[in-house]
Design brief:
Number of strands: 8
Strand order of the largest sheet: 2-1-3-4
Distance between the termini: 24 Å
Largest sheet: 4 strands, parallel
Length: 192
Amino acid sequence: MKIGLLCGRELSFPPAFIDRVNDLGRAEGITAEFVSLGGTPISEPARYRVIVDRISHEVAYYRGYLKHAVLQGTYVINNPFWWSADDKFFNTSLAQKLGVAVPKTVLLPQKSYPQDVDITSESLRNLEYPIEWDALLNYVGRPAILKPFLGGGWKHVYKVHNKEELLEAYDRTGPYCMVLQEFIEFQQYVRC
């Protein structure tokens, strides 16, 4: 059985994962390697029995390939069909509803909108203005984290300590819908 690892700029996990799988699995015919892609014919059979995906949320081609691989019988860990389920606000709301302790979180509207999207003042008539920044900061506490509500990879993530830093960071977010979240001092950081 061949296991593929699809990853980005991570430096420690990928080689450790591949080495560990190869060390433990070789006697059983289980091997792991980095996935290598360069154009995917629709008739291409599955190259891997399992693919561990850690990057398709950032690269659309990888996501398309992984969906095709699933149809060919590959098990994909980190389901490519759920990539849009990385909505941090919804996921936090869902976790809270299920009884999981979550940081205080606020969904914020975009600072601006792409020029190719026809947004008028009427399109935004339901938004309250001005935003009550002080009240939102008081709710989540200081420091706080400002980050896009979709996506990952630590892009456009800001740790803010006061209203001035929040507004400065928010002004740089452009068309990204953002969440403002309570900063949690952690003893240990684990990612899944």
